[in-house]
Amino acid sequence: MAYFERKTLETAFVKPGTPMLSDCLERLQQDAELSPTRARDLASGLRGIGKALNRPLNEIPADPMWLQPRLGRIEPAALSLSPKSWSNTVSNARAALVHSGIVQKRDSRRSDLSPPWRALWEDVLATKSQSLAPALGRFVHFLNRLDVAPAEVCDAHTEAYRQALAINELRKNSEDAMRQAIYGWNHAVGRLEAWPKQKLTMVNNSKRYTYSLEDFPLTFQQGVATFINRMQNPDPLDAKALRAPLRPATIRHHRAQLLRFATALVLSGFQIEEMTSLDVLVDPGNARQGLTWMLKRNNGQSSPSIFNTALMLKALAKYHLQVPDAQLEEIAELARRLTPEQNRGMTPKNRTRLRQFDDANAMRKLVVLPDTLFAAANPMIKLKTALLKIEVAIAIDILLACPIRLRNLAELHLETNLKRIGDERVFLVYDSADVKNRRMIEFELPASLIKKIDRYLAIRSPIMCPAGTPWLFSQRRVARSVSTSDLSKRVSKAIRKEVGVDMNVHLFRHFAAKLWLERYPGQYEALRRILGHAELSSTLNAYAGFEAGTASQLFANIIEQKRGSQ
């Protein structure tokens, strides 16, 4: 089998003859018309890109389409730079590419616009909107440069805009910029009287393929309703029924799985009009047909999602439809064949993300991040901005001190989950019924975290939520807990911006394991209690050998000491 070096593959789609950044630097140095200051700034931008990508300039193609995704993944904090400094670096590097004739110079002056576009742009600026002008600025200048009249703008121009950005931008994501332009255009249609009235089509990049329940025959809908009711209210006298009601989140998950599989079966060629009951799904031939379609969509490979769908069909057949044993065995065999390879320990992706914290600077930035955000929040200057920072600071502080699951964090109830003992001690408590694995959770909160929470609760209403809202993390206009996706995105965004690493909420549990086992190697039982695992085997499977890095470092130290003693 032929072997290709990674560097060769990384530049496989770069057009032959494309200059390298080193070529651009050489042109700068040979241009006598550039002032020394300007030449120095542009050269600094190119060198800054090389440092950020950890490559010599002669190995970096001067190709915006190659550079954009790589620069887009870089956070200034990871380079110990401020956002402004990094922006200047990229701007100078782009100017160097303009100087070399690789990308076009931007049109950004109002005087560059034709009279029709200039009049519309002045209307945009007059709104003083903080979102409208940034979304539309590049798009308007792009259309003007192509001599497209305002009334002629259509979806073809948004796609052309995306392609132009991919060719000419170093850092901006062309897909995101196109979506922002479409949003800005459609917003202007409804807000500005003189703006052209044709709306643009928002591009949907979602890979989800699930039909809604209402797309299926009524009898199928009724079957789903009965299935959900049995999960909510199992018959205690039915030997084949569930022993206890499932949690609402679990029921929602099973409903989504069922609809996703029913959709897959239809997309595989089954007539939706014939989907008259849930029995159709657990017919062995239909089950095989739908699962085969899902496998083909995943390059012929099983996955946890496909495997869990097969398990759902098995549970549906066994507990709800109570099919004959022979039919049930056929469904069970499909599930067995789809069992994915079991990875011992964490996934490679999570290990890679956790390895970021082998850098002591990144580790320190994360553990002090709650205090950093809290200190930067000044309610006297801009109250809402300060409250948003404090809210994220509290969420991260809780995750560091109490590595709980995302849903438990998002649904933290001030009366049910925060138990105050006297004037100073506060415990975070979840009953077993509210936890994924039915294991009670109890942590005592640090005094510094309690102060943050009390400060936030004293000033959050009515800006962040209605008065009297019983959830710590609330929606803005109604007294309801925040969505898990919203809270997760805000936590990840803050960490990426301030620390410069990629980290989701669930990784805090792995982070806790890393800290504990590096400090107390082999102490798995205590770690099991911290993470709330029901069985020690779960902890061992996930983290066995986790302290190997510490052990290998100690061994390396022994070798160095022996060498030093010679």
TrEMBL record:
GO terms for biological process: DNA integration; DNA recombination. It comes from the Bacteria. The keyword rRNA processing does not apply. SUPFAM superfamilies: DNA breaking-rejoining enzymes (SSF56349). Residues 368-560 form the Tyr recombinase domain. Transmembrane segments: none annotated. GO terms for molecular function: DNA binding. Keywords: DNA recombination. Gene3D superfamilies: Intergrase catalytic core (1.10.443.10). Pfam families: Phage_integrase (PF00589). This is Tyr recombinase domain-containing protein.
